[in-house]
UniProtKB/TrEMBL annotation:
It catalyses: 2 GTP = 3',3'-c-di-GMP + 2 diphosphate. It is found in: Cell inner membrane. This is diguanylate cyclase. The lineage of its organism: Bacteria, Pseudomonadati, Pseudomonadota, Gammaproteobacteria, Pseudomonadales. It is an enzyme of class 2 (transferase). Its main location: membrane. Residues 185-318 form the GGDEF domain. GO terms for biological process: cell adhesion involved in single-species biofilm formation; negative regulation of bacterial-type flagellum-dependent cell motility. Its cofactor is Mg(2+). GO terms for cellular component: plasma membrane.
């Protein structure tokens, strides 16, 4: 099929195009409308009589005139058709979406083909726009992308708390350890667990135990920065990786966390339920052969907190 079409051949083509669900607009070289099919009438609310001889940019002020004219003039100069797709530019003109999926897309997504039209003299003195409604395709693709993103997110997070799961969290720790080795930036780790959690489960039941775990996770999420990595390490044990944070900064964070948990009161059948956490803090040192060493140091500090009465923060004594 040739890339240019004789304007005289367009009349019988338009009889066909009028009956299919695409927009057809023919413009002269001053961008004034000469052909305006029923699709355009129905979606714009502008009749063919009103649109005739009117500038496309007057009818649709939302069109980026500089971008569009460059696109058209390039197609005319090369004598080839040009395209715009919804992934790059959602639409050329603002039409409301009337598809059954209304609510997911207020405006019509569009693909547009730009066709230079040659007259019988061989001169390109008209341009045809074919506007396709691709809202269904676009919305379906975006829904699929959103679903895939959610699935990926679920694969990285613990189901009960919404914090990073152990597998993904350890991969973050390994990555940050490698970054520290390269750039020597400070990285600290806080590891903590809920004090006497078995007693909570035995006394109040597993549902209440789960609520306590979720509450600690919520408090942790509220206190961490966007650059931090908070995860559930297992059972009632949690971890927070603090990139760019030295040991004293991590100790301050841990103390804020300890205090926030201590102050939290849950309602259990009309009675107040309080709980505490014990925390260990360590920072990456040059003597550590791998990220596991940082975990071990923080875990030893946590053990000291438990041995000394719980509900306290202990710093790694090796630093």
């Amino acid at each position: 099929m040739p890339d240019t079409i004789d304007i005289n051949e367009l009349h019988w083509l338009l009889d066909i195009v009028q009956s299919i669900d695409v927009g057809v607009v023919v413009l002269d070289r001053d961008y004034n409308v000469e052909v305006w099919n029923s699709f355009m009438e129905n979606h714009s609310g502008i009749s063919a009589e009103r649109a005739s001889r009117t500038s496309l940019f007057e009818l649709f002020p939302e069109i980026d005139q500089s971008w569009f004219t460059h696109k058209v003039e390039t197609a005319v100069m090369l004598g080839t058709r040009a395209f715009t797709i919804w992934e790059q530019r959602p639409n050329l003109v603002h039409f409301k979406s009337y598809q059954p999926i209304t609510g997911l897309a207020d405006e019509m997504y569009q693909n547009v083909t730009i066709l230079p039209l040659r007259s019988s003299t061989g001169k390109t003195d008209h341009v045809c726009l074919i506007i396709y409604d691709v809202t269904g395709v676009a919305v379906n693709k975006r829904q699929l992308e959103s679903a895939n993103t959610k699935l990926q997110e679920l694969a990285l997070r613990d189901g009960l708390t919404g914090l990073l799961n152990r597998r993904y969290w350890e991969s973050c720790l390994e990555r940050e350890f490698a970054r520290h080795q390269r750039y020597d930036n400070p990285v600290s780790l806080v590891i903590f667990d809920i004090d006497h959690f078995k007693r909570v489960n035995d006394t109040y039941g597993h549902q209440t135990g789960d609520e306590v775990i979720r509450t600690v996770a919520e408090i942790t999420s509220q206190l961490v920065r966007e650059t931090d990595f908070a995860g559930r390490y297992g059972g009632e044990e949690f971890v927070v990786l603090l990139p760019g944070t030295p040991l004293d900064g991590a100790a301050q964070f841990a103390e804020r966390l300890r205090h926030a948990v201590e102050q939290k009161v849950l309602d259990y059948q009309g009675s107040p339920l309080t709980f505490t956490v014990s925390l260990g803090v360590a920072a990456i040192g040059d003597d550590m052969p791998g990220y596991q060493a940082l975990l071990e140091r923080a875990d030893k500090a946590l053990y000291v907190s438990k041995e000394q009465g719980r509900n306290r923060v202990t710093l790694d004594g090796g630093q």
